Amino acid sequence: MTMIFGVPMQALFGQLLLGLINGSFYAILSLGLAIIFGLLNIINFTHGAQYMMGAFVAWMLLNYAGIGYWWALLLAPLAVGLFGVIMERLLIARLYKLDHLYGLLLTFGLALIIQGLFRNEYGVSGLPYAIPSELSGGQRLPFMFLPNYRGWVVVASLVVCLATWLVIEKTKLGAYLRAATENPTLVQAFGVNVPLLLTLTYGFGVALAAFAGVLAAPVYSVNPNMGADIIIVVFAVVVIGGMGSILGSIITGFTLGLIEGLTKVFYPEASSTVIFVIMVLVLLVKPAGLFGRTA
């Protein structure tokens, strides 16, 4: 058996794949957080609950309406994104001119309410969600076995992350979004509906979380605590990449997922804390994060 640094090659690449899958979820979720904070200046602690809602909507569509995975990838983000739009209009829009702490406390409270409602209705045990038949099975590679669905998760997350970055950084719509947060009065003078733009931006960030939830449903069990288990790590990813940095969130999410996977091979005891150790070290050297801009 081929060994790399004293570790069987198949075990090493298997953990790298798991790390890359985790990194895919970190990247999509931190991207949504970065969009909402970078463009709206709201620390959205409800993001984990919205990720969980995406998985639950996919499960409900399958079990109550017979609507499968592929349609759920479209419908669940739309449904949860619409919920986010309503939440933004009724509650969050009132906090834009206040300190970040108010948005954090509001969204943290909303997250607890949402998780409590789902926990009361469905309990804490995981609900299974089957892998779509088109993505069942896997590929026998020379160095490892690659499940088709795991490969799909990585590819889909990469495509969504890069497409989102291109839209925000390289298109006229993205320019309007950035301008609306920096000088809303001027942008509104040009006939742009700034409140609607901000509402749709929040809804899109929420939809990204729900999309990640649908991707995660066949990988992890669908349960009310799945968002609470990942959101703290995702916030650490955002801080390391730089609060509000779109590209930083994407790169940092995938990179930290791989580092976490390697840590599980060489030092398993540190795998649950390595991201937070990296966060502390990065903040000591560069408080704005790796890709963040100092004010």
Could you explain the architecture of this structure?
The chain is mainly α and 295 residues long. The protein has one domain. The chain is 71% helix and 3% strand. A hairpin with a 4-residue loop joins strand 3 (138-140) and strand 4 (145-147). The N and C termini lie far apart (53 Å). 45% of the residues are buried. The model has no long low-confidence stretch (mean pLDDT 88).
Instruction: Output the helix-strand order.
Output: EEHHHHEEHHHHHHH
Helix tally? 11
The strand order across the widest sheet is 1-2
The structure class reads: mainly alpha
Strand content: under 5%
Separation of termini?
53 Å
Oligomer: single chain
| Uncertain ranges | none
Average pLDDT rating: 88
> Major sheet: size, sense and barrel closure?
2 strands, antiparallel
Helix content: over 70%
Overall 3D form: globular
Radius of gyration: 19 Å
Tally of individual domains: 1
Care to count the β-strands? Answer: 4
Task: Write a short abstract of this structure.
The protein is mainly alpha-helical and 295 residues long.
Layout of helices and strands:
Layout: E1 3-4, E2 7-8, H1 9-40, H2 47-65, H3 69-90, H4 100-122, E3 138-140, E4 145-147, H5 148-170, H6 172-182, H7 184-189, H8 194-216, H9 226-241, H10 246-266, H11 274-285
Antiparallel strand pairs: 1-2, 3-4
Helix pairs in contact: 1-5, 1-8, 1-9, 1-10, 2-3, 2-4, 2-8, 2-9, 3-8, 5-6, 9-10, 9-11
Transmembrane segments: 12-35, 68-87, 99-118, 149-168, 189-218, 230-259, 266-285
Keywords: Amino-acid transport, Cell membrane, Membrane, Transmembrane, Transmembrane helix, Transport
Protein name: High-affinity branched-chain amino acid transport system permease protein LivH
